[in-house]
Amino acid sequence: xxxxxxxxxxxxxxxxxxxxxxxxxxxxxxxxxxxxxxxxxxxxxxxxxxxxxxxxxxxxxxxxxxxxxxxxxxxxxxxxxxxxxxxxxxxxxxxxxxxxxxxxxxxxxxxxxxxxxxxxxxxxxxxxxxxxxxxxxxxxxxxxxxxxxxxxxxxxxxxxxxxxxxxxxxxxx
Length: 173
Hints:
The chain is of the alpha+beta class. The chain contains 4 helices and 4 strands, in the order ααααββββ. The protein has helices at 4-31, 40-60, 65-111, 117-127, and strands at 131-138, 142-149, 155-161, 164-170. The longest helix is centred in the middle third of the chain and has 47 residues, at 65-111. The radius of gyration is 24 Å and the shape is rod-shaped.
């Protein structure tokens, strides 16, 4: 028969496995946000890892309201962080598209035509490493550029002419 002291240590170890260690690991993934990770997909991966661990902790500690409250606070914070990150990347991508359109307008003014696909690809790569051209068509007055965000697989449609452009964010398929 195990002694009362051995049973106490077994209880502490079991508790550590269902709360302490997963909480430590989830906090580790949350701390990765501030370590210079600027890759959209990488940030989302870290958030998903932390969320998964917190949800597991919720399931395994359903009988402990104080722990549920603590973990729910963490999940709420991750939700807010995910929305902020999405909004930041959305704004950055929109800015990149406007900058790309400006480059294309300058090319149009200098050459009296829209740039060839390799030029567009090169200019897009200067702005961000997360975009690749899926489709590019042009005629004398307009262009249509479909880009894929390699981080989250979403698509961005940039349509323009010499007087302006339109950016459309297409949903992930």
